[in-house]
Amino acid sequence: xxxxxxxxxxxxxxxxxxxxxxxxxxxxxxxxxxxxxxxxxxxxxxxxxxxxxxxxxxxxxxxxxxxxxxxxxxxxxxxxxxxxxxxxxxxxxxxxxxxxxxxxxxxxxxxxxxxxxxxxxxxxxxxxxxxxxxxxxxxxxxxxxxxxxxxxxxxxxxxxxxxxxxxxxxxxxxxxxxxxxxxxxxxxxxxxxxxxxxxxxxxxxxxxxxxxxxxxxxxxxxxxxxxxxxxxxxxxxxxxxxxxxxxxxxxxxxxxxxxxxxxxxxxxxxxxxxxxxxxxxxxxxxxxxxxxxxxxxxxxxxxxxxxxxxxxxxxxxxxxxxxxxxxxxxxxxxxxxxxxxxxxxxxxxxxxxxxxxxxxxxxxxxxxxxxx
Length: 372
What we know:
Blueprint: H1 3-15, H2 24-34, H3 40-53, H4 55-68, H5 73-84, H6 87-92, H7 100-110, H8 117-125, H9 138-148, H10 158-164, H11 170-184, H12 187-193, H13 199-207, H14 215-224, H15 230-242, H16 249-256, H17 261-274, H18 280-286, H19 292-307, E1 335-337, E2 365-367
Antiparallel strand pairs: 1-2
Helix pairs in contact: 1-5, 1-7, 2-4, 3-4, 3-5, 4-5, 7-9, 8-9, 9-11, 10-11, 11-13, 12-14, 13-15, 14-15, 15-17, 16-17, 17-19, 18-19
């Protein structure tokens, strides 16, 4: 085992949250580790048998034993056994063992030594024996997608994502759409998603085109900017800005003056992604808005703007993290409502700028874009 891998496993063991010793299992495993040098073949065999019998209990016992002492040949073999078995992958997706941010940090390091980790995590969260997407553990599934979405996009994850696009859970569907779009970089696929009834899916599909500059991507983003739902339209305007297709300042300022508070909040979100200094006065005005969602998003966007290098008037600054979407960016992003079922006519498009999106009536509170 390479030294960096051993260090990674050691850090994993130190970070996992396991309870106190559970009795005979820990004592037996500790005995195998202690006696390893005198009977290594038998100790290896017996460790493997324990692992095969109950992988979850073995992981807990192994972590407790290694927390006490990771020195000696027995402990070294135990580390190798953990690394070579899927049991450590299961530890990443178990919220009882690791907080999500810690699991994501480990997964990013892990990918340096195992380029197939993302597909392993997906298969662990959506096992093949689950005959339908309805039969998977939704809480576990959401955590799996949250981890994989933070890893580099690799095309080998596309096939398992296809089934997830039909999940009964809207957040699983929308996260799968975000991952599929970001990985495939297929503007035509995103165009087809614009026909989805769920605005979460449409918004996340549009977000997946952020930074993609092609004729087809521009056309899809312009089409999405006419979407009747604020989340979709706001993401499209951010995407158009990021590729320099249009100056979206006027469109967002008009959106920020709309009657629908959720459209105003969406405009504030988009301004916080673009970070144009010209938006500062608009956001400061939105701090006095009657809607708490608008005030909250305006404040978050002003905080983001303050943390970024100050641009000259008329210039935008890209957010520090490329691809950081609304709702995937953490606590700084706002919470906005769900789509209205009432369609609103789109404003005609001009030759020089994308149309200002028509507002939709909210029905519940949801993130602007990708759900997490």
